């Protein structure tokens, strides 16, 4: 059975050319970039080059790039770093209800430590209203964190507009670009952000390495102490191979954005249209146009997401769901709930995220399997027989 | 995370559907929680001769219903009464702890189906 991987928002495979670029830094070029001898200087050079590459791709200065141990760490460093370094200016932070848990849980931590957090609602597409951001600002507001695009439903937030408002008010602005890096063009000046997080394994780089853009002049408190690495913003010997891999993967992805976006959009539309045409009682989630080119999020009424995922897995198809069973809690996806999706519908959500290796044939296979599996589970569902023609709320 | 036995029952669920002219029906759970289990039974001479289930729920919910129907078929009402959710989970080779409370309710649905059967029987004898 061929495997069909449709969970690229979860992680991606390392590209061969990325792995090749990384390998020497595990073996013959194993020096510590802080060492003075040539082996160390060699590693330092690779680190500097990687930093320059990433800075260039983001439209930033290389002094503004901090490498981290992943996207979650970048989010943590941005939010806690700004919060603790700017506490004397105020204790109010604004975010949205649909952020990744790396942001939301960090906000809750800060709330327990004396900060005041405003969580903005979203509309039925999962979109934040820039006017609501402006209205939520107070004299005490030190930071706003709104994601670039949502990891579950793919909605792209109006970051430029929010950024412009905040630049005028001189409030720090962080955006989690983990889902957009490698998929959309990213320029920190155009986005008007002061901090931006990204993660290598979402764009065919290795796991365990990410980056945080920190605009010059932004005060942040480090949370890993113990050395002068990363301009004292993140101590610890650098993950040289990982950082080289991040830069290589990011350069490849950003260089191919136009062709990859066109390909992904065509595949996404084929999947979306196929589901809409062949399965009834469905609800598509996220914004219809302001969305990532690789994301389809859909709820199938009367069935539950985990059962759907297990059935797809039996056919070799990897996907994800926002059902309670797959979130590890008793609640369905906080993103779908914030968008007003009723919990009984949210339990039946399926997220399919496409990538560079997917083909039209795979999409057609997935559609055939989905039709079969949804029908099978609905046949078993006591809800389906009772309301066969009930429209979705 | 699931045992082989759970996956086997999930892949090939037994006794899916509804018993025709059921003698008793029971349903537990609600759609908000993402789990509903519905059982229907046919009883002859105080013995459950047929049982079928329908489920809106996760892998564990489907497997536990399927397992229960196998355990119950052919048992007397009294024997069936004694089956607990824990018995079902054990027969499945265990369930992940997060699933024990939300998805392992098949025996509760059976109790309700038996209650329903007994109350109908009483109504019948009173009529």
End-to-end Cα distance of chain B, whole Å, is 52 Å
Q: What share of the residues of chain B does DSSP label as strand, in percent? A: 15-25%
The H-and-E topology of chain B, N to C, reads as HEEEHHHHH
Radius of gyration of chain B: 14 Å
Topology:
The complex is a heterodimer of chains A (393) and B (127).
Chain A: E1 4-5, H1 16-22, H2 38-58, E2 65-68, H3 71-85, E3 92-96, H4 101-112, E4 116-120, H5 130-136, E5 141-145, H6 159-169, E6 172-176, H7 188-191, E7 195-199, E8 210-214, H8 229-232, H9 240-255, H10 257-278, E9 282-284, E10 295-300, H11 305-314, E11 317-318, H12 324-327, H13 334-338, H14 343-346, E12 349-353, H15 360-380, H16 382-386
Parallel strand pairs in A: 1-11, 3-4, 3-5, 5-6, 6-7
Antiparallel strand pairs in A: 2-8, 7-8, 9-10, 10-12
Chain B: H1 4-11, E1 24-30, E2 35-44, E3 47-56, H2 59-72, H3 77-81, H4 85-91, H5 99-102, H6 106-126
Antiparallel strand pairs in B: 1-2, 2-3
Helix pairs in contact in B: 1-2
In short:
Chain A is α/β, with parallel strands linked by helices and 393 residues long.
Report on this model:
The complex is a heterodimer of chains A (393) and B (127). Chain A has helices at residues 16-22, 38-58, 71-85, 101-112, 130-136, 159-169, 188-191, 229-232, 240-255, 257-278, 305-314, 324-327, 334-338, 343-346, 360-380, 382-386, and strands at 4-5, 65-68, 92-96, 116-120, 141-145, 172-176, 195-199, 210-214, 282-284, 295-300, 317-318, 349-353. With 393 residues, chain A is of the alpha/beta class. In chain A, helix 2 packs parallel to helix 9 and helix 11 (305-314) packs across helix 15 (360-380). The mean pLDDT of chain A is 95. The longest helix of chain B has 21 residues, at 106-126. In chain B, helix 1 crosses helix 2 (59-72). Chain B is of the alpha+beta class and 127 residues long. Chain B has helices spanning 4-11, 59-72, 77-81, 85-91, 99-102, 106-126, and strands spanning 24-30, 35-44, 47-56. At the A-B interface, helix 11 and helix 16 of A face helix 1, strand 2, strand 3 and helix 2 of B.
